[in-house]
Amino acid sequence: MTTQRTVLVTGGNRGIGRAIAEAFLADGHRVAVTSRSGEGGPAGALTVAADVTNAESIDKAFAEVEAAYGPVEVLVANAGITKDTLLLRMTEQDFEDVIDTNLTGAFRVIKRATKGLLRNKWGRVVLISSVVGLYGSPGQINYAASKSGLVGIARSLTRELGSRNITANVVAPGFIETEMTAVLPEATQEQYKSSIPAGRFGQVEEIAKAVTWLASDDAAYISGAVIPVDGGLGMGH
User: Pfam families attached here (predicted)?
Assistant: First the structure.
């Protein structure tokens, strides 16, 4: 039996984040999720309001989780946004907004979680990046920069906290069947699928299984790694 842990998933109210929260719940963990509204999390999880661009709001969310479940032991930094447009049309605001949520937002939640992880002398940090972070994508300079930055965070965190029984890893999803891919025209979906060696989009559950494994005792000696879950699209690059 796996030790029951307190897990916090940011942006756990829909898509990949929700599937991750549900997988931890199914494994018997105490699970909390953040959403901007403080509503909409999966049944069985504690849903708290948090805006990852605001340190005060994060602090309040952590205090709620700690009061209910004790210190956060597994942190999944998943909250993210996109503002896609070609470089010449991208405003500084478009760039800064995506960096502030996806990259600085991850920094804020990790910083808040770290005191508890150090006190416990045990912790798992999993950062949800993207194949785009290492592969690149036209129209996504802001998003790619934010997602590749998470690799630097995980590797630096590994060097800082690795001796305290704390690991930090990155999961890099490829094209996954979510609301975002569902609205793509059929021809576009087929074009994308033809570039994926597996020949299909991934399922949110496939991301969730990689995350729960990284948080488990089985992955205790893995840290600073980038695990691609992309059907072979980026092959870790």
Answer: adh_short_C2 (PF13561)
